[in-house]
Input
Amino acid sequence: MKILQILSSKDLGGGTQEHIRMLCSGLQNREHTIKLVCRPGSLVEAYHNEGFDVVPIELRNKSIAIKELLYLMEKDLFDIVHTHNRDADVVGLVAAKKKNVPIIISTIHDFLNLDETGKRKMNFPLWKYNRLLKKIPHKFIAISNAIETNILEELKVDPDKVTTIYNGTDLSIFQENIDIDKKREELNLPYHLPIVGIIGRLIAMKGHKYFLESIPIILKKNKNVFFLIVGKGNLRRELELLAEKLKITKYVRFIGYQHDVNTMIKLMDIVLVPSVSEAFGRVITESMACSKPVIATRVGGIAEIVVDGVTGILVPPRDVQAMADAILNLLEDKTKAKQLGEEGRKRVEEKFNGVLFVDNTERLFKELLLNNK
Output
């Protein structure tokens, strides 16, 4: 198969970028021909280093982007065009339709028509985008059942046009041994205290505010703990000020974006995911792959990953007290924390591994091409 992958991202960091890396690598290893389009940025070099044929196109310059995509499609005659996220959809779907590409697929990585806090929104650009999605793709891939439901509710398309394929986790990466003591020293983290951490963009959707607000409750009962926040985003200063207001700066460290997620997870004793909206929650499966206990909110696709009380702990979104109680319980019951981590690893191996993700995607591609003949 000759496949053109188009994604909206330009820089490293984020679930979609890892999704594409794993998919393209897996398909290339199975002798499929892959060309990858992304916006100019650090991602271009990173994907080149992975051995991908990458073409940088500024997708937000719509007229020029469509012309360049049409040229690529004329030259290579792809069997499938597969788009990821809005900027890629807007130009990629139009170009693929104009060139009568046999199969056009859009993977939906986030909830349609929701803002960063999980509230519904609609405006004219979104209305136009929805109309485009309804008209062009032959198939939608949803990264969770929650996203599949959202697509059906918002676009009112035939249910046969939508299928869920869960994100995969590259288990080989998370089996690497890390010198945790050395890394703690590098980051000036206390080596003798358990670390509760969160990894993700510093945006409202990720719920950092509620994590910080849970910390004073925890410290009233247990001061032998440290809190780590990994990630960058436009809320950093606001969150730092909140930490100062809560008088918890002695116990909290913001360390910005870190490219090595594996190492960051292994630094932590408990991984927290306090999102108010979440399409899937890749950091959850990555943490489970490291056998780390996870506490997460019961929103979106998270409940499809975490079996409450078996592979992790689920709490209501924005419930600071429930979050604090869950953290305190796992800090106290290390046997339970270890058991959750071990069961989480098994669940990822069975349901969210990278090979299964590529298998399911490749199978879908072949079925669509076969049915198109």
The CA atoms of residues 327 and 333 lie 10 Å apart.
